[in-house]
Design a protein that fits this description.
about 240 residues, alpha/beta, Metallo-beta-lactamase, Chain A, 7-stranded mixed beta sheet, 5-stranded mixed beta sheet, 12 strands, binds zinc ion
């Protein structure tokens, strides 16, 4: 394949969200890996499940001429963070609870996914090292990607024991992880804190950028926060 053809192929899978922000839909759980890029630098939010696929994403980013300078994990669910080993050479940022959760329950999560994975995916899942993020983010933290300012906001317990969102004011985008879903309803599990999630929705409504990138599904506006609020408020009452 010529380099020009390779560039076209890479461009075909990086879906534009806004200027400087693209997403790449991972086959596993149709999770949105998000790439924030400017001036030859790139930050990846949620590298997905399988290191091999994250390596394809990284190759596409590098083919565009961008160097990955860091990774952000929005929360400790396997479909968002199991591929982190592909980026072991750069800093990785997450809520401190993510690091604790992966140490305590990473293997449990792996066993749970193996219960429904295809044979091919199961082999890759068994082989992958579960890697914890290097840099706990306990309070709001700013990064620079080229000339773009990126703000990491640790939310705390909500969808999981430690969620974090990523604001890109220059692009009008907030990457919300699974605090916002458009592919499905809001997803709850044993680690979910419903009152915490309702508070998180209030914070997003007050401070988030106009365009939200959910963990799964198409980008959306703040109206989706209202949808989740109604659903979670009903859960709290039962
Ligand atoms: Zn999740
Ligand atoms: Zn998810």
């Amino acid at each position: 394949m010529s380099e020009a053809a390779a560039r076209r192929e890479a461009a075909a899978v990086l879906l534009p969200v806004a200027s400087g922000v693209d997403r790449w839909v991972m086959p596993e759980a149709a999770m949105n890996a998000v790439v924030i890029a400017d001036g030859g630098e790139a930050l990846v939010v949620d590298p997905g499940t399988l290191p091999e696929r994250a390596a394809e994403l990284r190759a596409a980013i590098e083919l565009r001429g961008d160097r990955v300078i860091g990774v952000v994990i929005t929360h400790a669910h396997w479909d968002h963070c199991f591929a982190l080993s592909t980026f072991a050479d750069v800093a990785s940022y997450a809520h401190p609870a993510v690091i604790a959760e992966l140490a305590a329950h990473g293997e449990q999560q792996r066993d749970a996914v193996l219960g429904f994975a295809s044979d091919e995916t199961a082999d890759a899942l068994r082989a992958l090292p579960i890697v914890a993020p290097t840099t706990p983010v306990e309070s709001p933290h700013r990064l620079r990607v080229g000339a773009l300012e990126v703000a990491l906001e640790p939310i705390g317990s909500a969808h999981t024991g430690g969620d974090l969102v990523v604001h890109v004011p220059g692009a009008g985008v907030t990457v919300a992880g699974d605090l916002v879903e458009t592919a499905d309803d809001a997803q709850l599990d044993d680690s979910t804190d419903v009152p915490g999630w309702l508070r998180a929705l209030d914070r997003l409504a007050a401070h988030a950028q106009p365009l939200l990138v959910p963990g799964h599904g198409e980008p959306c506006g703040h109206e989706r926060l209202e949808h989740h609020r109604a659903l979670l408020a009903a859960r709290r009452r039962c």
